[in-house]
Amino acid sequence: MTTAASVGDLVSQPYKYGFVTDIETEKIPKGLSEDVVRLISSKKDEPAFLLDFRLRAYRQWLQMETPDWAALGYPTIDFQNIIYYAAPKQRDKKASLDEVDPKLLETFDKLGIPLSEQKRLTNVAVDAVFDSVSIATTYKEKLAEHGVIFCSISEAVKEHPELIERYLGTVVPSNDNYYSALNSAVFSDGSFVFIPKGVECPMELSTYFRINSGDTGQFERTLIVAEEGASVSYLEGCTAPMFDTNQLHAAVVELVVLDDASIKYSTVQNWYAGDEHGVGGIYNFVTKRGHCRGDRSKISWTQVETGSAITWKYPSCVLQGADSVGEFYSVALTNNYQQADTGSKMVHVGPRTRSTIVSKGISAGHSANSYRGLVQIGPKAVGARNYSQCDSMLIGDQAAANTYPYIRSQQPLASVEHEASTCRMSEDQLFYLQSRGIAFEEAVSMMVSGFCRDVFNQLPMEFAAEADKLLALKLEGSVG
Amino acid sequence: MIRPDADVLLEISGLHARVEDKVILNGVDLTLRAGEIHAVMGRNGSGKSTLSKVLAGHPAYTVTAGTVTYRGQNLLELSPEERARVGVFLGFQYPVEIPGVSNLEFLRVATNARRVQLGQEELDTFAFEDLVHERLKVVQMDPAFLDRSVNEGFSGGEKKRNEILQMALLEPLVAILDETDSGLDIDALRIVAAGVSQLATADTTTLLITHYQRLLEAITPDFVHVMAAGRILRTGGRELALELEERGYDWVDQELAALELG
Amino acid sequence: MGMSTVSAKSLASWTSDLLARLPAPSGPLAAVQGRGRGALAALQGPSRRQEAWRFTDLALLVGLNLNPSAALSSGSAADGFAADGAGTDGAALPGTSQSGPDTLRLKLDGGSDPLAGVVLPAGVSPLSESELVLALGHTLAATGCEQHWPVELNHASASQLLALRIASRSQVSLELVSDAAAELRPLRVLLILEEKAQLQLCQRLTATGAGLTSLVLEAHLGRGARLEHGLVALGQPDAALLAHLALEQEPESHVSLVAVSAGWGVSRLEPRIVQVDGSATTTLRGLQVVAGDQIADTHSHMAFGGPEGQLDQLHKAVADGRGRSVFNGAVRVPRAAQRTNAAQLSRSLLLSDRARIDTKPELEIVADDVRCAHGATVSCLQLDELFYLQSRGIAADQASALLKRAFCEEVLRELPAAARRWCSFESLLAAHGADAGPATAVESGRDDLEGEGA
Questions:
Q1: What is the pLDDT of residue A154?
Q2: Which of A366, B196, C240, C276 falls between 20 and 30 A from A213, CA-CA?
Q3: What is the overall mean pLDDT for chain A?
């Protein structure tokens, strides 16, 4: 009897964020053309430089071909069958939360992200984005006292256009890849964070994305800039209702750190993954890149991925500044028929740069979980060091764990070390824990947490506890 | 120590069990009273290890007939963790390694699960650390083992001592020790035996499953049972173990054959 | 980088040019040649857009003006070795053993029947035509490479074949030698090892001219059979090597493949092994050395078809000058391959800042009760180690030479003794383009002593 059979009928925890908010939404007709791009720009009242940015990107996109990743199988996306703009019908960002449509506030309440004054989390500032439109940002004034700018990109375009113009598209150029080009043309909203010189952001900043419409593509754009000596910890969270068609999520995240600055970017992603037969679920194609522009700068990516039908994301760091540091800590769980092709790229340009990759993949059900990483040491990266560790945990014998770590080195005075191993959650190990009085679900959870410990230790405290529970939740019915 | 009026802690009656489609237990009868120490001996394949796994509720084994009553309660309808919490402990022959799960954390969660069952308060991290450091003395283990992953990289002797440490923390009423002496050198055997003896009280019963009788030199059993072909063939006192040591197990085959014919 | 990149168009025209110049199909492989030529003409050749060829530029190959070997059309008799001939090929290292008197030594030149006039020892027999029809290509298909471009290139051009059956329980020692000049030399080998047969195969490939050696070797191991294959491939900077080694293992069989290559302008080695039902052991060792503008590429592929198989793989690379080393180690453990135990380690030594290492271990695992680990490191000579030797009175340049030798020895010493004599450490580095002398050490900065004009 295998582990799979012995657990029997643990019922799969229903995705509790699967509800839809009934709210009036303005949408434009389906399809993408230059006119649609202009329409989006005009609806958001954007300055000329941004319209140009969009149009250039759109024209580049037309010249490109969809990427073909051998390991993923998904039906071709019909880009003309997607709506590129949907916004809840409250136009301007409200000056105070009292003016926000209560149904929206209630939505975020239900998601555990209370926005109202009394109930909000006190140590986290939240920018709430509903169907790609930023609804509210908490603690703006308090942050402004420290000189920290935290607002939606749309707002930043109006209030700080020079910053947007200086930094947007400098880390992920529009023509970097197919989905970054698409995003650069039709991005709707996202968060902008700017930490001025020498400031340690006093709170954690968080953007919470909520997809509500079924047929809208989501194209968020996030830009975080930390000037010399500045630092910030940023959390990204997201959920979506359950639909039986697939939705496209193509986001771009750009991080810039100057001398001695650091950004910690954490994601706990819990999209709807499709039902147990693989129907529905989000297509998640994200380009996330950090540029360690300054000397001794640092970027840490920490992520827990448990949702989405198809995930294609490789948070990367370009380590240009001397002595700069890039880190990537990830747990990716796939179950049922999910497919993940994810990993990290660390590109060492400058001298004495360091990178660390710790990737933990958990494959259950009939899923396929692939780690694809790149460590590239350029000719000028004297004294660079990389350490990578990719471990896979297999649950049952029908899921796949694939590892493709690319290592490219041109600098002899650098060192690269990579290790990988596989393990399983065995019946014997679970029985051992149970025979000591530990309940089955808790035993599973202990083993998974033990496996992911190196990564969970990197998450901000609030996320760490949530991540633990989220994994346990997602595994119910899979160790079985 | 045999006291005829002591409580019956474990009553096994006509127990038959199989793994996949192979029948291993062929009608085991055994009564364990409080304060007693029993030894089950037999060749490899006699079913002694299977007996211990079936009592602990290992999912690979199916009970096809018979009953097991623990303090008047049907043990077979309890899940493995429920059995552990009510005080049935299995010391494994080959304790499995669980990389990534901290030994200390694991011991604390298990101990608290038992305490809750007994109506006691759960121990927080600090209180538990005090308790475990005290219990480490029973098995003379270095506290450094607490920081490692469960059994990972432990030598055979260290794994067995980790088992006895768990016994010292969980304080079971029925302790079933499956070949606890296998793979141990003299010193480790001495420590394990001393630990087991220390934990055996008038209220507990201990079932030692063993191949060799050298463990029984260190822990004197009240009853020795010889198992073969999935059942208990003969029961005797301490002398039976010595007899086995001298004569070996051949006579067992003869007796089995006689049973078949008779 | 000083090297032009080959375009798909230039490779295609090189291919059709070559096809036009090949003599008409003849010999035992005539039918294979016919089919192969058609396939090659229709096949899209390797290009940088294909994942499997991303880092390996075939520009040098395309620059070769290949005359099919004079031997291809002459059909001259093979030059079999005398049983105890010491041979002038490769200086024997003092103290190393020569191949024994019972070794079957054959010369492969791609144009003549290697068995003509040769008396086969006990336990070795040729294959009949009907056996050939069944066996030829079987292992290529089992390892999934029968339509690879280098294989079709070999299909199109090879007219001669060495096909041998090693009888059950016999112990055979075989030496295959090929010394190519400025020519296209296609070599095709098929070995059938019956149950519990044991074969030690020492194979040497060298080049003394601007040519292409194309090798396709298939070996099928019956239950309990053992193959020890030591391959030494020493080329020169204007020569190219394309080699596919396809091995099929029945349960309980053992394969030990040790491949050493150095000096080729471009070399591509593809060891592909399948354990058809698991329960076999496979040991792979590889060492490739590049310097100058050389490119060495090993793409290995290990597939487990059943449970309880074992893999122990170690691949080492040394890259100096502007050399480029590429390694891709694929391991496939499907659902049926429970209790597989696979370990793969790739270690690369980067000696100059113009050289380049590309290494990618690649695991695809579905079975869960398995032990699969891989590791990869890239570094230069370690400062601590250099210093330790120097602190014992050894000069810096000698110290680095010692460490480089030690790095390579780990693989070299696993070669069967008869193969070992073909590649001393010095011959490996010095005679074939790389500099065995003073190396880049942490303290000494740019290497200004390299002979190849970095």
A1: 86
A2: A366
A3: 80
Give 3-state DSSP helix, strand, coil % of chain C, rounded to 5: 20, 35, 45
DSSP string covering B84-136:
HHHTEEEE-SSPPPEEEEEHHHHHHHHHHHHHHHTTPPPP-HHHHHHHHHHHH
Q: Is A424 on the interface with C (CB under 8 A)?
A: yes
pLDDT digits (tens, 9 = 90+) for A397-435: 888 999 999 999 998 888 899 999 888 887 788 899 999
Helices (H) and strands (E) in chain B — how many of each? Answer: 9, 12
Cα distances (angstroms) measured from residue B150 to each of A103, A472, B158: 50, 20, 11
The conformational region for residue A229 under phi > 0 = left, psi -120 to 50 = alpha, else beta, is left
C338: nearest CA partner in chain A? A397
Chains B and C touch (3+ CB pairs under 8 A): no
Interface probe for C, chosen from A416, A417, A428, A430 (most Cβ of C below 10 Å), is A416
Q: Pairing mode, if any, of strands C295-304 and C324-333?
A: parallel
Residue with tokens 């035993």: A443
Of A395, A402, A407, the CB nearest to C368: A395
Q: Burial of B235 by CB count in 10 Å (0-12 exposed, 13-18 middle, 19+ buried)? A: middle
- Using a CB-CB cut-off of 8 Å, the residues of chain C touching A72 are none
Q: Which of A324, A368, A332, A326 is nearest to A345 (CA)?
A: A326
Please give the Cα distance from A287 to A304 (Å, whole number): 16
Q: Which residue has the higher pLDDT, A34 or C4?
A: A34
- The predicted-structure confidence for A218-257, as pLDDT tens digits, reads as follows 788 999 999 999 999 998 876 555 455 567 778 899 999 9
**DSSP-derived 3-state class of residue B143:** helix
Alpha-carbon distance A412 to nearest alpha carbon in chain C (angstroms): 5
- What is B8-93+170-261's CATH topology? Rossmann fold (3.40.50)
User: Phi-psi bin for A248: left (phi > 0), alpha (psi -120 to 50), beta?
Assistant: beta
Q: Is B249 left (phi over 0), alpha (psi -120 to 50) or beta?
A: alpha
The pTM for the full model equals 0.75
Chains touching chain C through at least 3 C-beta pairs below 8 angstroms are A
CA torsion sign, A21 to A22 to A24 to A28?
Answer: positive
CA closest to C352 among chain A residues:
A412
CA dihedral B160, B164, B170, B172 (to 10 degrees): 110
Q: Do the beta carbons of residue C426 and residue C93 sit within 8 Å?
A: no
Q: What is the biggest distance separating any 2 CA atoms in chain B, rounded to whole angstroms? A: 63
With beta carbons under 8 A apart, name residues in chain A contacting B113: 436-439
Q: In what order do the strands lie in the sheet with B73-74?
A: B22-33, B8-19, B61-70, B73-74
User: Residue ranges of the alpha helices (H) in chain B?
Assistant: 48-56, 80-86, 103-117, 125-139, 156-170, 186-199, 214-218, 238-247, 250-261
User: For residues A338 and A391, what is the distance between their CA atoms, to the nearest angstrom?
Assistant: 19
State both tokens at A74.
């998904």
Q: Taking the domains of chain B in order of start, what are their residue ranges?
A: 8-93+170-261
Instruction: Test A401 with C373 for CB contact under 8 angstroms.
Output: no
Q: How far is C335 from chain A (nearest CA, A)?
A: 6
Buried residues in B4-41 as b, exposed as e (16+ CB within 10 A): eebeebbbbeebbbbbeeeebbbebebebbbbbbbbbb
Residue A79 has which token pair?
């880009």
Residue with tokens 């031997």, as numbered in its chain: C71
Is B166 in Cβ contact with A447 (below 8 Å)? no
Q: Could you tell me the two tokens for A240?
A: 């979506």
The answer to which of A316-330, B27-41, C360-374 has the lowest mean pLDDT is: C360-374
More confident residue, C384 or B243: B243
Closest to C424 in 3D by CA, of C414, C438, C409: C409
Torsion sign (Cα): A65, A70, A76, A79: negative
